[in-house]
Amino acid sequence: MTEVPGCTVPQELADMIINHLDDSQSLQQCSLVCKSWEASSTVHLFSRLSWPPCSVCWVRPAMRGVCDCPRHTLTFDDCHDFLLSSHRLRAVVAHLRITGIRGSSGLPEVEGHEPLPLTFLFTLPELLPGLQTLEIWDLRTGAGVMGPPPNLSANPGSLDKLILAGTVLWDDRAIFSILSAFSHIDHLVLECYSSEEDLEEDIPLASQLHRRFPCTSVNRLEVLNPSYLTDVLCCLHEQLDVSALREVKVHLCLGKGLERLIASALSLEALTFMTTESPPKLPNPAALRVLDMMCSIMADDPEEQPDASQFCKFGWGEMIHNLAALHAPELRELTLGVMLRELGYWAEDAGISQEVFAEALARRLQEEDWGTFRAIMSARPKLRKFKLKIVVNDGWTSFQYMVPYLECSARTFQDAVVSCLGRDIESILEVVAEHHYNTEEYMNYYRYP
């Protein structure tokens, strides 16, 4: 081991210690020991940079628009100047997270929105040569990407991951300008949590559209809440190099925009979506290797309707028929998910036993077309992994009351599915039961068996 002059700790041991530190105060202290410790600490201190550099802004997102600290009023131009001030800092930034929301020092309750300057956006690939992940939050419609394009060299930029997210509406011009700043993105995430009030607002579009590259190569696309991004998704195929698309993951129903995108993706290998009346059309079904489908089942109140089937919406059959329509002879991995909803009725106050619930679920499953499912499984000779996922999504119900219903639901579905596999069950079937705390925060409390 080599020792650092003036320091009794060998450099290799010092690097090991610094690599395991995860708080900024300890890293700042280490950076004061000597130059070699400073270099090692700088990598961890500035590899993840958030702008504005305000802890309230990022630790408590709900306060992002009301924080009036001086740091929260710093602009994108300030960030550009800060990065230009240190070549060593620019070399270590791998993850950059920025937001367009600005606080007002005079009126903290007033929420301001700063447009993202093209000068800052288009120079990011050259400004931060080691940038791997970029997160851009809350560029409100009408204050998206603005300004004249800067003079650029021909060096293309690439990212491992680009996340465009926020709680307000985005417009397609802002998104296309951001995408066109990079020639290649491995993983693109579009995440919007607009409220119904936001959707009804008539906000004029003021973002300018400037494209550095005519199209952007994206390998993986992930979309959360596509209903809030309808206009963007309908035009997304115009900006993406669809020939590079290998995976599409949508957490809800696809919609026309994504179906149009998939219809042009000749090399699509993995697809995740929630079932609808008809599945998307794949231009090359033989390329598909991984398929993940989700349906939802809604439970009636057992006390108000004791003689009913106790399930007012049952999507299992719809999912099976979607699966039958997707001809994928080379399929290797298949996940079928069932989201159990409205189970708050069955919890503490309902007083209904898990056995009663399991019997009602088993009776309902008997009505499904298991012959079709058996034919589907026998027609997938290359299938090596089949996962059955049971999910409870009830944020208002205590988790301790959900575990028994998760377990009995998983067991009931497993018993129904096993007879249709026709192969070595242990090598192909995995049953997972999960509890989602709410739609925005995922909690994996429980696994079955």
UniProtKB/TrEMBL annotation:
<dbReference type="InterPro" id="IPR036047">
    <property type="entry name" value="F-box-like_dom_sf"/>
</dbReference>
<protein>
    <recommendedName>
        <fullName>F-box domain-containing protein</fullName>
    </recommendedName>
</protein>
